[in-house]
Amino acid sequence: LTSRRPEPAPVRTTCGYCGVGCALDVVVREGEVAAVLPARDGPVNRGHACVKGRFAHGYLTSSERLTEPLVRRGGVLTRVGWDEALGVVASGLRAAVGQGAPDAVAAISSARATNEENYLVQKFVRTVIGTNNVDNCSRLCHAPSAAGLTASFGRAGGTDSFDDVEQADCLLVVGANPVEAHPVVGARLLQRALDGAVLVVADPRGVGLARHADVHLPNRPGTNVALFHGLAHVLVDEGLTDPGFLRDRAAGLDELTPLLAEYPPARVAAITGVPARDIVAAARYYGRAEHPAIVYGLGVTEHLHGTDGVRALANLPILRGAVGATGRGFGITPLRGQNNVQGASDMGALPDLLPGYGHVTDPAARARAEAVWGRPVPTTPGLRIPAMFDAARDGRLRALWIIGEDVCATDPDSTRVAEALDACPLVVVDELFAGETARHADVVLPVASWLEKDGTFVNFDRRFQRVRTAVGPPGGARTDFAVVHAVAAAMGADLGCRTPAAALAECGRLAPDFAGISHERLDREGALHWPCPSPDAPGEATLYAGTFATSDGRAHLAAPPYLPPGEEPDADYPLLLVTGRRWAHYNSGSMTRRGANLGLDPQGHLDLHPEDAARHGVRDGAPVVVDSRHGQARLTARVGGDLAPGQVFCAFHFPDEHVNSLTSGHADTATSCPEYKVTAVRLRPAQE
Ligand code: SF4
């Protein structure tokens, strides 16, 4: 008889790619990930997952993984031990503070990191360095959502649970291609449409859900505010608003009404390129539905007027009375891009906001944090990410710690980003691989990925879920949590909260919305929505029953005028470039390009209309050179009809193509979120 050792139970964790937050069961054999299976009881995914969550784990065992710290010696990144690397970081940070005061140091935390790591990073920056110069990559995607939704409703998150959206009889999907970027949500939305909900899609491209839409509104990039005002105009004009809700629970109608009069469908059609009859049809669908829901993506936020766009879109459920647990609709839900965009901001990795969104200029919010931390909190808001690069270029910033972001591949106008890093005396990068940014670093610290650490993420509908270690990190790589502790210790400081569970518990002591959430509770209950103010609170899936979280308890209508984007096509740059994501890859592609997913989608493309291809002498499948006012990229043409003539599209998953050298420095006037969605470009065939 032979005795078989029982297989270890799969490790339940939360996907580390997009913000949907799929629960995954990781099968581990002999210390390696053998399979990743979608959890049947996953609260968001219910037995589904996409090609990223399921198959993009080959990077774990890639021979290119960083396993030892690297320090630049004589211009070359050289392997050193942890003690030496930590010493270089600590002395560099001390020197920067000594020469330029605490504000000469900044950190970019990460939406890829856990909540607990983000909490620890901002605590380090505020209490050990003594500055508010900490930000995270939500700056580059959903900062306008946080600002806009807070101004409209009071909290920096979606108004409803995605489970509610599934009861909707009209889905308005705006500026998003969830079939590729958030595939499990895309599938659930499509199922809802197939089950009978009316589907309205507002997006320049005719891909994904747009192919199944009852009405598709392909508005010209950069014209969102006009489009949303046009829809609101029809709601008001045709009596499709909720007068009782507007009287009892809203504010701002007197300012909005005269503005909407300036946006009749005919004028909006001229601005957006969408036929007036389709604007009217979409507004009627939304206005006449029993339970309308809005889901939106980065096509709303990544604009010069992104926060205005969020606010103009948020006007629709307010006018309709379809928000605030009224039973008449399911509000508005932003599709967060990265796995933990919501959580990184919730944890206070922001230059103006503390954990739980208390403002650094608010004495009461500072006092709550100081009581827990035992250290003063700086009173001046810190630098946002784009301002950090500006400060590095002009010498004000002398040390920058970048945690898990390949900013030279993913941030806009990447040539200038690289110049900024080169000008900064100390650049420290926590990374899995030596990517574009590491080329400009003085110290590179090898760290663990989402399958190699413990903690929590918050998904797109405000759900905390557990992240659990499936396998150990390779070689000497450490978790970001351990690295932040070690850097603090090297500077003679003790951040306390030695474990991720202790860090989340500490965060709950100064952020009442998270006070009832703990690792122990999540292990027992699976997921919890915030706000969850006490250990016996169930967590609020649907917000604003009875009152909104604004200062007067009302939902606030906004009246921003439509203003044009930062760049318009002209004779020199006649095409508009929109960037986005594709189904098999994720952001810079550092993980998804190292494994099975590369075979599914091996190279980037520039999508363009047949008319533009003919006009520029470009063949399908041929290499093209794309120029903008900011840089140049080389891509492969993919000729098709999903875009209007004059518009081109590409993803940014392949750093060798340098797509973000094309994108501009234009950014949302309220939040500095870059205008990735509108860049004027020209193209020509490349030498084959
Ligand atoms: Fe789910 Fe998004 Fe992960 Fe795909 S990438 S498995 S949709 S969380």
Can you give a write-up of this model?
With about 700 residues, the chain is α/β, with parallel strands linked by helices. It has four domains: about 10-60, ADC-like domains (N-terminal domain of TfIIb), CATH 2.20.25.90; about 70-140 and about 340-500, Rossmann fold (3-Layer(aba) Sandwich), CATH 3.40.50.740; about 145-335, 3-Layer(aba) Sandwich (Dimethylsulfoxide Reductase, domain 2); about 575-685, Barwin-like endoglucanases (Beta Barrel), CATH 2.40.40.20. About 30% of the residues lie in helices and about 20% in strands. Helix 3 (about 115-130) packs parallel to helix 20 (about 480-490), helix 4 packs parallel to helix 14 and helix 8 runs antiparallel to helix 11. The radius of gyration is 24 Å and the shape is globular. Bound molecules: iron/sulfur cluster. In the C-terminal section; belongs to the prokaryotic molybdopterin-containing oxidoreductase family. This is Formate dehydrogenase subunit alpha. It comes from Streptomyces zhihengii.
In a few lines, what is going on in this structure?
Helix content is 32%, strand content 18%. The protein has 688 residues and is of the alpha/beta class.
